[in-house]
Amino acid sequence: MRTIEVQEVTKALAKMCLEAAYYLPEDIYAALVKGKETEESPLGKDVLTQIIKNADIAKSEDRPICQDTGLAIVFVEVGQDVHFVGGDLEEAINAGVAKGYVEGYLRKSVVGEPLFNRKNTTNNTPAVIYTSIVPGDKVKIKLAPKGFGSENKGGIKMLVPADGVEGVKKAVLDIILHAGANPCPPMVIGVGIGGTMDKAAQLSKKALLRKITKRNDHPEYAKLETELLELINKTGIGPQLGGTTSALGVNVEWYPTHIAGLPVAVTISCHATRHAEAEL
Asked: In angstroms, rounded to a whole number, what is the distance separating the alpha carbons of residues 237 and 179?
């Protein structure tokens, strides 16, 4: 059994909040550069040039890539041989988010109650936390700050098995076309297939953590990722003002489901698809 002080979790997350806000992942940056090279619209090329310039400034000056520094979504893989001491794990995670956002002067965008008074919590907590138990004595933490210009345009379709692959493609395209240019494209798309309605949504979030250069290990899902990316880039949405670079990548994650079901969830992320990770 390995013992970990929860303060280590707090410390790691505070640092990750800043890293995610300032530094665009290399795979996303490279895709933007490639998109600029292949974009057929002159206006689209100009937009991509500005997006790349913005990412360069953010990195060189340690400034947020976007003014919406998001709601913190935290995925924690806890090794079954780990024992936390010194406090509550969930409290430690939220303390890390609060420390990162307050001391880093990142925008605080969380309201404590969603419908009636919507009062800001002033430290961007609580985070949305997904925890899983895995073999080993390590703890892996992945943070994805999620802006809501794109989050608001995601969706879920509860299909039936008879809808098949073509039904899944149509469901994804319907959500993307409804979103249009509102999510600040070029987009990164996470798709979750299977499980239940809530599980599919979680999978679609998790999909965004995988590099867009790494295809799904299952060959048929890998093919689906490629086909969906091609279809989305043919919509003409483009980089905000029309063009051929509507999306930088599509990642699909799947899970077993009921014999009568085929849930499909789509999480849309803007070009500032940010995440950071640490291992304790």
From this structure: 10
d(CA 42, CA 259): 48
Report DSSP letters for 182-220, one per residue: TT-SSEEEEEEEEE-HHHHHHHHHHHTTS-TTS--SSHH
Q: 149-273, which class in CATH?
A: alpha beta
Output the CA torsion 155→159→161→165 (10° steps): -50
φ, ψ for residue 63, nearest 5 deg: -125, 155
Which amino acid is present at 56? D
DSSP state of 120: B
Q: Which of 275, 264, 273, 266 lies closest to 232 in space, CA to CA?
A: 266
DSSP H or E run through 5:
strand 2-5
Domain ranges of the chain: 2-20+65-146, 149-273
> pLDDT of the chain along its 280 residues, tens only?
899 999 999 999 999 999 999 999 999 999 999 999 999 999 999 999 999 999 999 999 999 999 999 999 999 999 999 999 999 999 999 999 999 999 999 999 999 999 999 999 999 999 999 999 999 999 999 999 999 999 999 999 999 999 999 999 999 999 999 999 999 999 999 999 999 999 999 999 999 999 999 999 999 999 999 999 999 999 999 998 899 999 999 999 999 999 999 999 999 999 999 999 999 9
